Amino acid sequence: MDCPVCKKGMVVLELNKVEIDHCVHCRGIWLDSGELQLLLGHKKDETIEAFASAGRVKEKPRKCPMCLKKMDKVLCGHPVAVMIDKCRKNHGLWFDKDELGKIIEEEGAGKSGEISVLLKDIFRESRE
Amino acid sequence: MWELIAANKRKSLIIFIAMGICLLTLGYCVGMAWLGPDAGFFGVLIAFGVWVVLSLISYFAGDSILLYTSNAQAVTHDIHPQLFNIVEEMKIAASLPVMPRIYIIDDPSPNAFATGRDPQHSSIAVTSGLLSGLNRDELQGVVAHEMSHILNRDISYLTFAGVMLGSIAMISQIFLRGSRFGGCSSRRYRSGGSGCGQAQLIIFIIAIVFAILAPILARIFYFALSRKREYLADASGARLTRYPSGLASALEKIGFSNIKLSSTNNITAPMYIVNPLQADGYSGIFSTHPPIQDRIKILRGMAGGASYLDYSKAFSAVKGGSGGIIPSAALSDSASVPIRDAGVEKEAPKDPKDKTRETIDLLRAVNNYAFLTCACGLKIKFPKNFAQNEFICPRCGRKHEVPSSNNVLAAAVASAIPAKPVTATAYGVSPQVYARKNVGWESFNCSGCGALLQLSPAFIGTSLACHSCGKEIKIR
Q1: Which of B378, B388, B397 sits opposite A122 (nearest CB)?
Q2: Does A124 touch chain B (CB under 8 A)?
């Protein structure tokens, strides 16, 4: 799968039987819908629907790496809202580098902490 | 088995001829309507020509077109030994002359189909969802069902009938759309009395009515036989595996899965073991497949044996009537086929997470991903188009060399140093030893030629030969 920002091949990282796609150039990550299902189980739909739309924003829209359609900007995160991209056809979620950093620091991708726990573990050494 | 094919062919031929008459009559009507009352046979000729051309294309390239549009990828024995093993087993049971080619479709929805012009040139395609969701007995049932389609020559029939259906639909579409502008009205400006005569008008109306009816009729014929063939393939599948429950529970899983197949359309849908576009439980004259509940009930109702006679008895019990699904020649085959016991799974049933991981990794291997496991436990999978030679593990900070044959070649070109010729004596000096890190997929480069080598989780040997230079590599 190619990075929606740099259009280069993304490396796949697997930890605890869950995969994420990671771009080594822009350091963004893609969380696939199937992987979210594995990670969150029955809470998946509930968690994703809880993300509020960010409305009109300046940030350039990104294209879903699977369907190549424009993604929506949504707000996730419990204490602090972090703006991420979500595919309209629910193919998955995209986190830019700084968004990823915020999610890890604030420990709150949605009400369930599973996403941030996983990301924190994978990017243990690469955090500045 | 031969009587079965012969009986099958006879019945198919009747429906096939009926469809052919539909096609030629349509050609005749259209020819008369467009080119005048004398040109009916010219229309027949054109309709026949269209069918012949389309048939030739689908005969020689149909399977590759179908597999291509379904995004199917060929797999070898190394990639999925179990699937290969099952297909081989069923190939022997069905005494098929040539091993069918095996394809995997990257789709989480469980389904399968077979294609190919004859038993010598056949392919079986299964989705990744089928591999991750079914156990061995169920998978065997599905493969046996598909094998029966190959064996009973259903594929070639379906291809030719499908092409005929397509030709009829095409001609009638061209005619109906063309008539909007052509037909009587265009003749208004012509001289002479041949404009819109009464007779011409009647012919025109008949042609329009037939152009609307012909595709519907042809479709009914096509689907009627398709349904019958599904029952027959279920029966032969049960007989080949001697375990009807395997196929029954596979059908249950496929039919009641709530994931929809994404890479399908109206043309390919009827080819699958369970029609992905057909609503649950609905079955009328426009269905390609019989209702799945009935298929499961019949298979589950086969008590005492797995022969055609047992299937026929179960069929009458479920559907009523005398059960004209199995040709009588096959029923007189009195040899009893006992039902075998359920296969014992060697390993304990796997966590669904593990099975999903396994199937996705398999598809990655097919797509030439390179696998690497970091000492910290993070599994890293590099795509073919990954541009860097080095990768730093984000979890523990270790530096890894990306295993890829492309990188080695690129490096050799960049430094303008010709690659060292590899000689047989060089192997003897320092045999390459690769230590396995885990039980998943692993990749490394051959030290002789730099080719990318992949170890599957099913690899149990102690050494392997490089597929590119033949060098022996020890695996620990």
Answers
A1: B378
A2: yes
- The complex's ipTM works out to 0.86
A82-87 vs A71-76, strand pairing mode: antiparallel
A72 is in which domain, residue-wise? 11-122
Number of domains in chain A: 1
A10 inside 8 A of chain B by CB: yes
- Dihedral sign, CA of B273, B279, B285, B291? positive
Cβ of A9 within 8 Å of Cβ of B383? The answer is yes
| Phi-psi sector, A36: left (phi>0), alpha (psi -120 to 50), beta | alpha
Task: Establish if B354 touches chain A: CB-CB under 8 angstroms.
Answer: yes
Catalytic: B146? yes
Q: Which residues of A touch B356 (CB under 8 A)?
A: 34, 38
The domain ranges of chain B are 1-348, 368-475
Distance CA A107, CA A116 (A): 5
DSSP letter assigned to residue A53: E
- Tokens, residue B121: 């040139």
What tokens were used for B399?
């530096």
Evaluate whether residue A93 is within a structural domain: yes
pTM exceeds 0.80: no
Nearest CA in chain A to B364: A12
What pLDDT tens digit does each residue of chain A (128 aa) get?
888 888 888 888 988 888 889 988 888 889 888 788 778 777 777 777 777 777 777 778 888 888 888 888 888 766 667 788 888 888 888 888 887 777 776 655 555 577 777 888 888 777 54
Alpha helices per DSSP H over B242-307:
244-255, 292-300
Interval B421-438 mean pLDDT = 61
Reference B458, options B75, B73, B80; nearest CA is B80
Distance between CA B456 and CA B475 in Å, rounded? 12
By the CB < 8 Å criterion, does A121 face chain B?
yes
Residues of B in contact with A128 (CB under 8 A): none
pLDDT band at B423; cut points 50, 70, 90 = very low
Inter-residue contact A103 to A124 (CB < 8 Å): no
Amino acid found at B114: A
Instruction: Inspect the interface and report whether the beta carbons of B380 and A19 lie closer than 8 Å.
Output: no
Residues of B in contact with A10 (CB under 8 A): 383
Nearest to B377 among A1, A15, A123 (CB): A15
Among B146, B230, B358, B442, which one carries the catalytic annotation?
B146
Report if residue A127 sits inside a domain: no
Rounded to an integer, the average pLDDT of B227-251 is 86
Q: Residue B383 — φ and ψ, nearest 5°? A: -75, 165
| Ramachandran sector of residue B445 (left: φ over 0; alpha: ψ -120 to 50; beta: rest) | beta
Q: What is the pLDDT of residues B149-193, one digit of tens each?
A: 888 878 777 777 777 888 888 888 888 887 665 555 444 444 444
